[in-house]
Each structure stands twice: as C-alpha cells, then as structure tokens.
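Quick board copy: two proteins, each given as sequence then tokens.
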Amino acid sequence: MSQSVTIERFRRFPSEDFKEGDPVRPAVSKILDYLIGATPENVCHLSFGMIQKVAGLRDSEEDHRTLYRTISYITGERTQLLELVFEYVMDDFAYILDEEEEADYKSTGLFSDPRTGVNVPDSAQHIHIYFKASRAVLQK
C-alpha cells in the first residue's frame, strides 16, 4: 500500500470513529498534518505538551481529557500513528526500555538499573514517557 493511500486511511479514521463535533477529530487531524509535514528528527521525541500544542488544545480540564483520549487513539491499535517510549534517565545515563522491561515496569512499578541490575527505589521519578512517530508515518 502506498504512503498516500495509508495517509488517506488515517485521515478517514477519526470521522469513522468519533461523532461530528467531538474535539478528538480535529485534534487527530492537526497531529497527523504535523507528523506528515515534519522531518523525521522532529517527530522522534514528542512530549505530552508538544502534542497538546500541535493539537491546538489548551491547558484546561476539558482539553486535558481530549488530549488523553486523542493520545490513546493515535497510539492505539487502529491508527498507530505514534509509539509510546519509556526511557530510564539517571544523571547523564539514558536507556530505552525494551518491550519486556516496559511490561514488567507497568505491571510491577519496579525497574532495575541496566548497568547494575539493582532495583531503582524511586524508579517512577526516573522513567520518562515520550512519543515518536510510527514507521507508517515516517515512510514519506
């Protein structure tokens, strides 16, 4: 399937999945436009705040709900526009968790420093989440 066909499918999904007037629809559209127009290096480390800004959402309770619904949708099985990345950062050391480490961390809340194998007592303060564009988006 060509990239343009894939992108057009992505563009149709929100209107198929959300009612007219649902704020997720335009948010997804704005994010998709950004992802397609940006260079790969600009879409490999996206924060919640950056996605909020790109989606045109404000810092309000209602827009926060829309942001979380939008992120759930664009990282979900249907679209997979963005991939969720878990990164362990301690001082000047950064490490991307693999799928198994991520699953263990999600289920137990525990993480062992990959350099020492020792559990990190305050791992939640050192595990950071960000997003990156999926391969489907990067195949421009």
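And the next:
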Amino acid sequence: MSQNEARYTIRNLFVTALVAIVGTVLVLELSGNIKHSDNKDHVPVGDFQAIHVTPGETFRMSPKSSELHAVCENGYMAIAADIDPSFRGILVDYKNRGVRCYRPSPTAPSALPEPDQTSEPAQDVRDE
C-alpha cells in the first residue's frame, strides 16, 4: 500500500452509515412514503396462535400468563387488555372472519347467544 492511499476508520464508516440511514428516513417521511395511522380502530391488538391439544398429549406453554383476557362480545371472541378492559379486539381468522365464542346449534346455525351473555368471560367448549 502506498502512503497517499486514503484510509477510512471504523468511526468514519459508522458515521457515514448513520447519516445515510437518518437521511433516508427523513426523505421518506417528508415525501409522505411512511404512513402513520391516527385511526386506532383498525390497529391489531395482538398476534395469536392456536395450539392443537389432543387428549393425553402434553404441550409447551409459558408459565407466565399474558396481560390479556378473552370475553364473549355479541357472540364473538374478543381479546381485551387487563390494564384497559375497554380496549377490545375481535378475534378473527386468517380470512378476517370472526371466531365465535359459542357452539352453534345444529338446528339453528345462525342463532346468537342471549344478550345477557355478551359480557361474560368466554367458556371453554370441548367435545366430551
């Protein structure tokens, strides 16, 4: 290597990368390409997974409980925060269809539960 060759220190490379990232974010923000939603009605409450439970088979789950609870809201499962129970979100599947919190009767598939049952905690429904 010759002595007139420019050398870049790690500090110079780090500062250059930081300036490039901050500049990119600023340009995207000022041009309106970064979207900020003020409508909190369509914000997901959380991301959930279902664990298939078969009789006699064990499954792994964290010993800590989440800070959420489930309630039956107009016949559909709603997830609410323990801190603010008024903040609720209806549980939907991957096609945005509501998950019912009751088992429909075979004779009346579209029947909803009685109005006095809408604010009760969801019951665990399993085949026996």
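Board note added afterward: Residues 10-30 form the longest helix (21 residues).
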